[in-house]
Amino acid sequence: MKRLFCAAALALAPVVAPFGQGLAPDVLVQTVTSEVIGIIKQDKEIQAGDTRKTIALVEQKVLPHFDFTRMTALAMGANWRRATPEQQKLLVEQFRTLLVRTYSTALTAYRDQTIEFRPLRAQPGDTEVTVRSEVRQSGTQPVTIDYSMARTNDAWKVYDVTVGGVSLVTTYRETFAAEVRNAGVDGLIKSLADKNRQLEVRRG
Amino acid sequence: MTAALAAAAILAGCATQRAPSPRDPLEPLNRAVFEFNDGADRFVFKPVAEGYKLVLPGFVQAGIRNFFSNLADPWNAVNQLLQGKVEMALSDSWRFIVNSTFGLGGLLDVATDMRLPKHDEDFGQTLGVWGLDSGPYLVLPLWGPSSVRDGVGLIADSYGYLPWRLPGWLDFSHRVAWQNSLLALDYINQRALLLDTTNLLEEAALDRYAFVREAYFQRRRSLVYDGNPPPLPANSGAPASIEVSLDPAPARDPGRGAPGAPARAGEPRPMSVVEPRVPANYPSVLAADAAALAARH
């Protein structure tokens, strides 16, 4: 469990919008990673914990390359098909808001780690790849960050991030299932919305 | 402490009715210990760790981190050997030798720069490699998430924990004081390392307890397989993948390029290091975006 989620800071880093089309997935992730880190290292306000600015950075640089619908569907598992289209829309919206916030928090925690990418193992026709990277810091075992990506309409999108072997989507799955069991899909939507509101208030 | 535990157990037992997780039959008790740990953390350990991080210069913290990391390497090497990984055992032994000498008693981690990377091993992982299932989830007082297997592993680990053993072997005067001081410093060091993690957890999780539990099982599985776990069987507790039909997205092709396909361990692999690169139009773009976002809220 050590250091895992702080490395999730870097999990934030996929893919810039203007570069998105037609780039190989590993190139995409590397490009955005270096760009986002470059910005964080330079921006004193983000380093000082300016949440709005960090969220803007995430919204602009990172989000276009996440497939939140698929992420939400995977986290919902079998319950996804039991949700109505409106419920699905709300779920994606709330889950997205939550992830953006936590990602932004993680980003502000980034300091002096180095990130390395492993060579991509993929065939030319693949529509699913895993881009693997490692975050290093002296005296600690490197933390792996794997981006599960799928190609849709010529663009590669991230649908799961696995940090040190812990998949974001899978980790949410049990909580989501429990919420749906206890209070239905609407109960889960409400929990997510409450959580987001609570974070919003805390930030002021 | 016992009273607090009991009270917490009663509260946790009454407060919620939950469907049991197959890997967590002791959930009510675990939740109580989790609450207890959380309280102790909130009022004692977290503030101390925050102070530690605030007050000590970065290089001192790195030195302390490296020092304890170095003292863990011999036990890592023993476990590597028990797991049949002779090469890794040698690598970790070299780490200890190199860092203890050239690294000034372990204050510097020079071995990493010599392509002897740090590994985290423990006896719980060794038991896992030997084929033992993790067993039910356990939350240990003041320690945190564990399992029956990993809890047993901890007993063995305590024998290999050098900050505790060394003062005795070296026949220090005030042995107990040394042991306690080292133990306390390591605890704070570990807690400080986890500060960002736990802060993030606080934000990310709807139910922190369940979130930590799921993350723990996945993490331990990854560690047992040294980062390359095989795909989970389809009908196990935590499905590796669920087929979902999504409207515009095409159906997944499970045959090729499946996510999580393991890279072969031990294979030499060139790495590309990421260099920070700032786009020319930053920060004007970002400022505009922040303004737009602020307007939206």
Give the distance, in angstroms, between the N- and C-terminal Cα atoms of chain B: 45 Å
What is the count of structural domains of chain A? 1
What is the makeup of the main sheet of chain B?
Answer: 2 strands, antiparallel
CATH architecture of chain A: Roll
Contiguous low-pLDDT stretches of chain A (5 residues minimum) are: 5-20
Report on this model:
Chain A is an alpha+beta fold. Helix content of chain A is 52%, strand content 17%. Chain A has one domain (2-203): Tgt2/MlaC (Nuclear Transport Factor 2, Chain: A, Roll), CATH 3.10.450.710. Chain A is built from 7 helices and 5 strands; from the N terminus they run ααααααβββββα. A 5-stranded antiparallel sheet of chain A has the order 1-2-3-4-5. The radius of gyration of chain A is 17 Å and the shape is globular. Chain B is globular and about 50 Å long. Chain B has 297 residues and is mainly alpha-helical. Residues 1-17 and 235-269 of chain B have low confidence and may be disordered. Chain B has helices at residues 2-15, 27-55, 58-82, 86-101, 110-113, 123-129, 148-160, 162-169, 175-193, 195-204, 208-224, 284-296; strands spanning 137-140, 144-147, 272-273. The N and C termini of chain B lie far apart (45 Å). Chain B has a two-stranded antiparallel ribbon. The interface between A and B is large, with 93 and 87 residues. β1 of chain A pairs antiparallel with β3 of chain B.
